[in-house]
Amino acid sequence: xxxxQVVYSHKEVAMKYFPHxxxxxxxxxxxxxxxxxxxxxxxxxxxxxxxxxxxxxPLQLSILLYDLGNPTPIDWEKDPQKPVRNxxxxxx
Length: 92
Prior knowledge:
By secondary structure, the chain is mainly alpha-helical. Helix content is about 45%, strand content about 5%. It has four helices and two strands; from the N terminus they run E-H-H-H-E-H. The protein has helices at about 10-15, 25-35, 40-45, 60-70; strands at about 10, 55. Helix 1 crosses helix 2. The model is unreliable at about 80-85 (pLDDT under 50).
């Protein structure tokens, strides 16, 4: 049975948030953001995240989008469904 779950590479997600950086720099910056936010890091670790992983699960991507917001412009061509979580920063 084929799964409809889509995974995204760390580099692919990082380039959405930091399109002006090189892929390596964008990946390093996204990792810094995750590691420097204790709430985000805890949520990601509860979803199975470990430093150095190369792919984000749909749940991990949802957490990133919730905590960091959608990168602009958003263009998730692989998965037309947008995550359903609300941005935590909008609640403040």
